[in-house]
Amino acid sequence: MTEPIRCTWAGLADPMYLAYHDDEWGRPLKGDDEVFERVSLETFQSGLSWLTILRKRENFRAAFDRFSIPKVAAYTEQDVERLLGDAGIIRNRAKIEAVIGNARAAHDLPGGLSELVWRHADPDAPVPATMADVPAVTPGSKALAKELKKHGFRFVGPTTAYALMQAIGLVNDHIKDCLARSR
Length: 183
What we know:
Order of helices and strands: HHHHHHHHH
InterPro entries: Adenine_glyco, DNA-3mA_glycosylase, DNA_glycosylase, Tag
Keywords: Metal-binding, Zinc
Largest sheet: none
Pfam family, one: Adenine_glyco
CATH topology: Endonuclease III, domain 1
Number of helices: 9
GO molecular function: DNA-3-methyladenine glycosylase activity; metal ion binding
GO biological process, one term: base-excision repair
Distance between the termini: 21 Å
């Protein structure tokens, strides 16, 4: 029996990574708090392995009030200090402060964060034959990063914006023969 084909980044060793690839990555995800969680996790991932973030995701959810935009937007310096002392998350002051600032920016968005992000969906993006065909940045991710920054978001450059687009299904970058492509 042949092994199913998956995008090579999913690896085969970690069940958490496989489940994320097979059941989550590239699937449409909407809702302001849900999208905010992904923006926040992408912020923390910057410079780190996504598997590191996945392994700490439940800790992040607990530490950041399940990424409730109104709750995180109301965080104070005491919350920053609390988060800096939380060994279950990535304790980087700049990233923690960016997530809080991003919650405040998201809270003030007319129409909400999900609506803003989904305006940049690219359902007609080419289907990659191999991972070499998957870009790191696209005109759409540049436009999304620019718009987020215009509204006060931080840690959202074009590469991070594209990773977000992939993660929440604005594009489907599962390779052509990947078992998760058509799910």
